[in-house]
């Protein structure tokens, strides 16, 4: 009877328990349930659980996620993965430890307090966790990448940092304008590929014949060194910023400053709370800490907003961040990066001219979804990294090819691929190859695919 | 209000109904009956209209509780309108209002009939009558959720609107699988009953129809004497299965997946069994003098208790002739109903447990005015929201019941008939007392009264609010106002023109 037949098919998704229905938890529930997994959400807060289980097809359980009884009622024994993203690091680690003892599931914990940030790898291996995530740290890393290359709106790294995908806006006077892509990338000196053009709400995965227009937002993928050459050739600035001003001294700000200082970038933090400001001077002796209200225009002026090369508002309030960005764009030429926590008003934010916008929630969920997809299909290939590109209208996925298949050892021109898809890059033994029709995929390669399809689990999914 | 999603749900429901209508065609072919075209025409109509409704894809798949309620109520109305067609087209119930009454009574698992006698009906029509019970028992929207992978997660609102009980939850994270598990249990139990009845010596056709009637706790008999003409063994089997189908299906899920302790701990089921045992004993003692031996008295009393508390409506003996004490117990049981999450109707045992505990809590607060006390069921505190919704449910029930009685009283029948006819329909039982007793029927009522009964049956099956929502003008207003196009409407521009 069909009723029982479907029962099995349904099991394609993984059984995932998410503990903590906060910001990251609810983004995860939203994204993972879209990917077709069976999700149980645990939180102490009844309203939050009910809101989520009313909104998405998930089972809600009210209780302390670290308690064994609660985990058992969430059927932890049959779970494939437990993700602990409550507000408390210690609770998250306890959740994972408890779950690991009663079932064979993998566990992911959010650990974000700077006290543990040096020890995450130790914690991960000792507690046998699949992953330790730190959204603030990841956000800081992404912001730092943009400050190293301020021309870019977004920098995504592939092949363990050897390749970058750079998203930038084409100005009117650029030599790129009205040029065919074949002419821009075709010359043998550049080893890179334009893999996406965003034009008026539309995303184009281009071919060589497409033309770049002024105002387009172009994404370019290549090895790290090549990308700078490429940008230089078309008249873009490629040096990193010299100094930066940060408003708000939260966790993300701490992680960011730490990275920037080690890269030799002068950093100034404006923090309103005296105690926190004192704490920061202890933690970050090289940084300039200002104890003042960073949302005060006079304060910003006094601290030299007009002369600073980059400006990063990192307060906890999205609206303040957006207002500060808009203000900074008016009074200075600084590179501005806006951190937005809530994703609800994304369209409004996109319609504003804010430049680079960072969504820490997406960064975390991308990492977890990449892991989950790999967990689901760990046969012939494995997802190394996953990015939602162009406002989640496309995905950039990096696969590790581990076994021979229909795709391997065959010139790419002989393989029939799905539409709306591009093999952007092959990384072989540390070397970056921008593939042409004559290149082949081999076992041991990692391959970057840019696609408007969603939900690819393994590299064979690209076949038509 | 997202009217296009409601349209999609309705279309799919009609398509499912159309396909299900093809099953009686098979029955008609087997018995060589002339009802084949009647079913084919109805099925084709339902499928074509359903298909037309789903052709246009909705832009927005958001689905809130109000959409869930409205689409559930409309689905049941549409299903009944189309389900009544075979009766009229085949000419076996020529009056369409009567056919509609019969169909609604079938889908809502009431079992109240307008037919004076049923044995003259063709087998395929009898099958369809019983089959409507089976479809309506677990609910067609639950079926829809089980077979259709619906996008968007808010489908729980469909299930909430259709499934009985104060708290509707999922057994497993995915609603589709929850629905499939429920239907799996439902089909499994039905098949077991069919097999057992076959072994007890019932004919194949009779056992299928009887089982479907029991499973949905419906109660359409295929004999004029309902179950009364069958052997005592069969009567006992039917009694037991009626009781089984009145149990909260979550308990079966726990049994099936080996959570035995949880299964034994379902408080509602314990109370339900307790009520059945106590009422059976009380009635048995009360009526013992009317029967020649104790087995007969026990069989008659337990059958009557089971048929009324599970809101099935089969009958063996005419309990209208019993002493007032026994009749009154049965009237009380009519309102108690079966467990939440079962196929039975009524107010549900769990609601009574909750309100009974509320009363005790109130007493307690008179003795210790400053005491803080929570109402607990199975060791868990009942949320204030649930308490409130239970109280409101009781009040609403009384309102709907009173208004219905008032409308039926226009018939100028006696008080018992008026009262129990409404009780029997709103609680989805079927037979009442006096003029609507087990041996009588609803044929003599006027068209207006029949529509009141139709409304009561639907309202009772869908737990009042989805049906009542249809009377709320804001629902209709928001259905017919289209969304404002943000680009077209620009207040600033208007101002400029004015200046």
Q: Which residues of chain B form runs of ≥5 with pLDDT under 50?
A: none
Please bin the fraction of helical residues of chain B: 55-70%
Distance between the termini of chain A: 32 Å
Shape of chain B: globular
- The whole-angstrom Rg of chain A is 23 Å
| Mean pLDDT across every amino acid position of chain A | 82
Oligomeric status of the shown chains?
Answer: heterodimer
Content of β-strand of chain A: 25-35%
Largest interface: A-B, 21 and 21 residues
Query: What CATH architecture of the largest domain in chain A do you see?
Result: 3-Layer(aba) Sandwich
The domain count of chain A comes to 4
Instruction: Using the coordinates shown, work out and report the CATH topology of the largest domain in chain A.
Output: Rossmann fold
CA radius of gyration of chain B is 23 Å
Q: Quick one: how many beta strands of chain B?
A: 2
Question: Which CATH top level class of the largest domain in chain A fits?
Answer: Alpha Beta
Largest sheet of chain B: 2 strands, antiparallel
Q: How many helices of chain B?
A: 24
Low-pLDDT runs of 5+ residues of chain A are: 1-11
What is the spatial order of strands in the main beta sheet of chain A? 3-2-1-4-5-6
Shape of chain A: globular
Structural class estimated from helices and strands of chain A: alpha/beta
Family (chain B): Belongs to the TrkH potassium transport family.
Subcellular location (chain B): Cell inner membrane
Protein name (chain B): Trk system potassium uptake protein TrkH
Transmembrane segments (chain B): 12-32, 38-56, 68-89, 131-150, 181-205, 233-257, 269-291, 328-347, 390-410, 451-471
